[in-house]
Amino acid sequence: MTGGAGFIGSHLVERLVAGGASVTVLDDLKSGPPRNLAAVLDRVEVVRGDVTTTLVDPGFVAGFDVVFHLAANPYIPPSVDDPLFDFELNLGTTLRLLEALRAAPRGPRLVFTSSAAVYGNPRRLPIREDDPTVPISPYGVSKLAAERYVAVYADLYDLTCSSVRLFSVYGPRQRKQVVYDLLDRLHADPERLEVYGDGTQERDFVFVGDVADAMVAVADRAPGRGEAINVASGTSTSIAALVGELSGAMGVHPELVWSGSVRPGDAQNWSVDTAALNALPFAAAVPLADGLRATLAWYEADRREG
Ligand SMILES: NC(=O)c1ccc[n+]([C@@H]2O[C@H](COP(=O)([O-])OP(=O)(O)OC[C@H]3O[C@@H](n4cnc5c(N)ncnc54)[C@H](O)[C@@H]3O)[C@@H](O)[C@H]2O)c1
Question: In CATH terms, is domain 7-170+206-233+271-285 a member of 1.20.1260.10?
Answer without folding.
Answer: no
